[in-house]
Structure formats: structure tokens, C-alpha cells
């Protein structure tokens, strides 16, 4: 069971910068999936029932089923209701999601929307158990686009906070030799395994999907050629030393999931663990950083 919150504002001229900050704040409070419609001043946000009960911020800031949350002088009117995951995902798939073309080479789509005949060299099928990780979000898209320009053939890949599994699956489609996908959510682990099967892969000695946090990385010291962490800033800052330990010398750590305003604190953390920044990209308020271990 999920809790569905809608946030709306009449200050439409401010949504371009204010909506990402609202989503980031809600992510801090335990929300895991978002659907943004900036032109309408509308943000749909979803949080699991367990996380909803555990969040102290929700009990104080969103204590009623309807009210106003003010952030950075923007008034967000919210409404709360219960929704089963199947209900809101069905609505998302049928009314919100559109296939995503990446550089004209890879198409991210759902089984229901697969084109016939195939229109792209690579086709990545996703059935999302939560909408984040469908390829629509700026951070996911930036990583996928950079991955298309990166030689991942034969690489050992680790996907931290795998979500739907989209990044790891993309790496496998591009020729990665192995994948370890890790998430703290058992639902995401199930979702990743399902999506692997949709794309012709299955757990094996070369493909593992694990339930847990960065402590799982201790089993892979210095093994990865490439590690993704498209996760919240605070988790990256806490787990960065473990990411570095899991990557071989010369291997890369790709980070996203945080805002451009977090750039300074992230770069300070990268310097502390001696990761070299080799590239970065931004999309609206979000940033992607590609780093290399010396």
C-alpha cells in the first residue's frame, strides 16, 4: 500500500526551480516516487506505508489529509489519500509514461508500448513498480546518455540503489560482462529481477540482485570497473568510501540523484576519497558527475 500526495501551487512562474527542491525535501522524508507537471504546478508524490509511519517529518509537516506546506516562500497545497501500488502505476503507465529515445540509439519503453517493427538499435523494457527509475527523471536520463558513449563491453558493473534496474540492464544491453544490483527495498529487488527477465537476462553467476545497503559491497573489494549511485545526496556522502573500495584502480564511479546546489559538498567529499572528476552534466536543477579512481 502507498500514500499518494498531490502538491499544487498557484505560483506557476516559480515551479521550474521550486518543484525540484520540493521533490528533494520529500525524498529526505522518505518519499520514493514522483510525477512532475511543472506547467500545471503539480507534483504527485508516493511513499510506502512503512516509510509513511516511520517519517517524523510527515507526522509534523503533513499531519492532515489536506493543508499547506510552505517551502522557500512557495505555498504548496497538498491532499493525501491511500492508493495501492497497482492502481497508481496503472494510471502512470497509461496516461503519463511515453517511450524515451536516447540519442536515437536506445528506446526505453514498456511492454505495452513496444513499437513494431523495432525502431532503435537497442530496446530496454521497463515495468516500474515505482515510477522513479523509468528513465524519465533527469538524473536517470543523464546517466543513460553518458553510458551510450562509454565502452562498457566486458565490464564488471555495480548498480547501487538499483530501483527498477534500468541502469544495470542498460549496461548489460551494451555488453557489460557482469552486474551486481543492490537496493534497500525488497520491492525494488523484485522489480529489478522482473525487468531483467523482460530484457532476456536472469540471475546467474554473472548477474546478482541483492537486498541490502552499501555494506553488501564488502564482498566485492576492488572488483568493479564501473559503479552507479543514482541516490539521494546524504546516502552518497555516507557511503562514498565504500563505493571507492569496491572499484578497481582506474575504475569509475558515476554519481547523480542530487541537486546542482549540492555540488560543493559533493565535490569536497570526492576530493576526500581521492576520486578524480572526469566529466559532469546538468539538467535543470540536477547534476551528474563521472569520477575515476586513481
From TrEMBL:
Coiled coil: none
Record protein name field: Ribosomal L11 methyltransferase
GO BP field: methylation
CDD domains in UniProt: AdoMet_MTases
Pfam family, one: PrmA
MF terms in GO: protein methyltransferase activity
Keywords linked to the UniProt accession: Methyltransferase, Transferase
InterPro entries linked to this entry: Ribosomal_L11_MeTrfase_PrmA (IPR050078), SAM-dependent_MTases_sf (IPR029063)
Gene3D superfamilies: Vaccinia Virus protein VP39 (3.40.50.150)
Amino acid at each position: 500500500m502507498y500514500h499518494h500526495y498531490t502538491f499544487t501551487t498557484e505560483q506557476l512562474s516559480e515551479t521550474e526551480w521550486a518543484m525540484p527542491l520540493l521533490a528533494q525535501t520529500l525524498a529526505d522524508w522518505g518519499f520514493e516516487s514522483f510525477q512532475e507537471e511543472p506547467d500545471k504546478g503539480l507534483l504527485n508524490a508516493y511513499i510506502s506505508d512503512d516509510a509513511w509511519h516511520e517519517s517524523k517529518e510527515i507526522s509534523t509537516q503533513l499531519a492532515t489529509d489536506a493543508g499547506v506546506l510552505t517551502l522557500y516562500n512557495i505555498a504548496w497545497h497538498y491532499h493525501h489519500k491511500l492508493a495501492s501500488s497497482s492502481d497508481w502505476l496503472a494510471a502512470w503507465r497509461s496516461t503519463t509514461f511515453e517511450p524515451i529515445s536516447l540519442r536515437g540509439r536506445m528506446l526505453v519503453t514498456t511492454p505495452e508500448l513496444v513499437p513494431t517493427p523495432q525502431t532503435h538499435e537497442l530496446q530496454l523494457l521497463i515495468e516500474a513498480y515505482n515510477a522513479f527509475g523509468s528513465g524519465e527523471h533527469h538524473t536517470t536520463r543523464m546517466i543513460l546518455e553518458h553510458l551510450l558513449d562509454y565502452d562498457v563491453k566486458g565490464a564488471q558493473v555495480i548498480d547501487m540503489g538499483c530501483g527498477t534496474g534500468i541502469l544495470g540492464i542498460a549496461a548489460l544491453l551494451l555488453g557489460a560482462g557482469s552486474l551486481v544490483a543492490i537496493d534497500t527495498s525488497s520491492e525494488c529487488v523484485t522489480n529489478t529481477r522482473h525487468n531483467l527477465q523482460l530484457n532476456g537476462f536472469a540471475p546467474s553467476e554473472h548477474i546478482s540482485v541483492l537486498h541490502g545497503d552499501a555494506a553488501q559491497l564488502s564482498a566485492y573489494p576492488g572488483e568493479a570497473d564501473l559503479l552507479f549511485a543514482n541516490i539521494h545526496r546524504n546516502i552518497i556522502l555516507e557511503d562514498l568510501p565504500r563505493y571507492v573500495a569496491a572499484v578497481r584502480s582506474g575504475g569509475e564511479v558515476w554519481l547523480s540523484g542530487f541537486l546542482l546546489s549540492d555540488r560543493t559538498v559533493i565535490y569536497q567529499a570526492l576530493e576526500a576519497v581521492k576520486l578524480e572528476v572526469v566529466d559532469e552534466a546538468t539538467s535543470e536543477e540536477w547534476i551528474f558527475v563521472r569520477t575515476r579512481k586513481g
